[in-house]
Write a structure and sequence with these properties.
This protein is an alpha/beta fold. It has a single domain, classed as D-Maltodextrin-Binding Protein, domain 2 (3-Layer(aba) Sandwich), CATH 3.40.190.10.
């Protein structure tokens, strides 16, 4: 019986570690290297949320925002929606339906890969998107705004 309790305890501890690693899975929001935004931490996250949801259209400093989304089933999208937007997929879908009905606003363009997100972000000053942290290392034309 003691062995079972110890095994369950170790299993639970492993699940807690795995869960905390899931939260900090190594994703980053990247922006164009010339983006003048100097915000960090929670302030940068709040701005990205408003820009992604198109509640704001410009970065602080006046640069027109150009958000890029990831495919809805991708781990990058799932983590971004949960940890940056603080929403569920259903809440995000309702948001875009409301925006479409109120003002004709559509969701950001979906991009299939880290490589393409980095390419688009490097090309456009106000662009931003989510990639795996490792994918953003050493890429010219982009900078990491924050990690989550």
């Amino acid at each position: 019986m003691t062995h079972i309790a110890i095994s369950l305890g170790l299993l639970f501890a492993g699940a807690v570690v795995a869960q905390s690693e899931t939260k900090k899975a190594g994703y980053v929001v990247v922006v164009n290297a010339t983006n003048p935004c100097t915000q960090t931490g929670a302030e940068a996250q709040a701005t990205v949320k408003k820009l992604f949801l198109k509640e704001l259209t410009q970065w602080p400093g006046g640069v027109e925002a150009r958000p890029y989304a990831r495919d809805g089933a991708s781990p990058e999208h799932v983590a971004f929606v949960k940890f940056v937007l603080g929403m569920t997929d259903a809440e995000l879908a309702r948001h875009w339906l409301k925006m479409k009905n109120m003002s004709g606003t559509t969701p950001p363009k979906d991009v299939d890969s880290d490589r393409l997100v980095l390419k688009y972000v490097a090309k456009h000053q106000g662009a931003f998107g989510v990639v795996k942290a490792d994918a953003a290392k050493g890429v010219e034309g982009v900078k990491v705004l924050f990690e989550f």
